[in-house]
């Protein structure tokens, strides 16, 4: 039976890839039509790319296994920034990149870095850290620890504030853009395929976790979260290859903003307690560490070569390796001895 679900998983990943391939063109047109900045363009892709997390949280809430959803939500937010930055870097190393608006791409390749607009820090990373602060305030203090119905409304307001500031800041006069009927339908098909593929990617991975007998929260942190990130990898690759490098590099923040707000609403509706507090706060600390590194790497890269350099890829990888080591060698021994709280 595991082999059957593995086949479903491969089919779902291919469906998500097909959908992601059709998003880069519409994203670029929408951004130009409405006059949004390149950094704000990541918010569009983030909404679509967050469909795996939304799907798994709806599913886990409906089945009464909210710990899978919570684990996948935290795990994907630790993994995704290192993975998407690395994906954008590799995608832009290849020749044949469409260089619309990016005439210096050959220099970027020669100097081994991904050029990113400085607005990625102020428009995406810092507001996302504010969302994490709100999430921590709602879940960590003992009197209201966990996710409750009122938290869903507060997180919705936090997301709307993030989205408005991302779209309004740096907005310019929009351009006239022509849309053919085929482009409209292909855009709709792309979003639909990404959502369907993402859902069945998560659904099949849950079945595999169950067959392997892995604890729900650990499976969510490392297996479901990893598989759920695949559609976003495809979307990031496609958008980066289309020449929209900043949008590709910032979509991961847009995804995370959705994940920690809108995608968590199903868990707030049913009420999700924090059963292993040590595992939760350690994971949340690493969730916050990744955007801090994201902002620092861009800010300190300098005006002449602003973005992600080759050494930053190794920095992100080291941070994720530290996360895995802390969970395996410090958190899990306490969990096994009953000291997880």
UniProtKB/TrEMBL annotation:
The chain crosses the membrane at residues 68-91, 119-140, 146-164, 185-205, 217-240, 252-274, 280-299, 311-331. It comes from Tsuneonella aeria. It is found in: Membrane. Keywords: Membrane, Transmembrane, Transmembrane helix. This is Sodium:calcium exchanger. Signal peptide: none annotated. One of its GO terms (cellular component) is membrane. GO terms for biological process: transmembrane transport. Pfam families: Na_Ca_ex. Its main location: membrane. InterPro entries: NaCa_Exmemb, NCX_ion-bd_dom_sf. Residues 6-165, 185-328 form the Sodium/calcium exchanger membrane region domain. It is a multi-pass membrane protein.
């Amino acid at each position: 039976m595991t082999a059957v679900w593995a086949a479903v998983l491969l089919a779902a990943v291919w469906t998500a890839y097909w959908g992601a391939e059709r998003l880069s063109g519409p994203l670029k047109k929408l951004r130009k039509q409405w006059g949004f900045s390149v950094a704000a363009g990541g918010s569009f892709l983030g909404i679509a790319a967050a469909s795996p997390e939304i799907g798994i949280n709806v599913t886990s809430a409906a089945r009464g296994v909210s710990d899978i959803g919570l684990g996948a939500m935290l795990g994907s937010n630790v993994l995704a920034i290192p993975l998407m930055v690395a994906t954008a870097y590799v995608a832009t190393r290849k020749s044949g990149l469409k260089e619309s608006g990016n005439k210096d791409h050959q220099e970027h390749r020669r100097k081994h870095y991904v050029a990113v607009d400085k607005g990625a820090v102020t428009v995406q990373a810092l507001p996302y850290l504010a969302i994490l602060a709100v999430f921590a305030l709602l879940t960590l203090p003992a009197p209201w620890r966990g996710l409750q119905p009122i938290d869903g409304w507060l997180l919705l307001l936090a997301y709307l504030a993030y989205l408005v500031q991302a779209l309004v800041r740096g907005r310019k006069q929009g351009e006239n853009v022509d849309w053919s009927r085929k482009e409209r339908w292909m855009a709709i098909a792309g979003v639909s395929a990404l959502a369907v593929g993402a859902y069945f990617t998560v659904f099949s991975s849950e079945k595999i976790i169950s067959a392997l007998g892995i604890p729900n929260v650990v499976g969510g942190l490392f297996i479901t979260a990893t598989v759920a990130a695949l559609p976003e990898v495809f979307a990031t690759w496609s958008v980066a290859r289309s020449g929209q490098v900043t949008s590709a590099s910032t979509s991961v923040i847009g995804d995370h903003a959705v994940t920690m707000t809108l995608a968590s609403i199903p868990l707030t509706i049913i009420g999700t307690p924090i059963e292993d507090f040590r595992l939760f706060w350690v994971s949340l600390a690493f969730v916050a560490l990744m955007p801090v590194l994201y902002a620092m790497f861009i800010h300190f890269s300098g005006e002449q070569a602003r973005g992600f350099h080759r050494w930053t890829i190794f920095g992100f990888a080291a941070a994720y390796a530290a996360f895995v080591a802390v969970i395996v060698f410090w958190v899990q021994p306490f969990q096994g001895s009953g000291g997880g709280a």
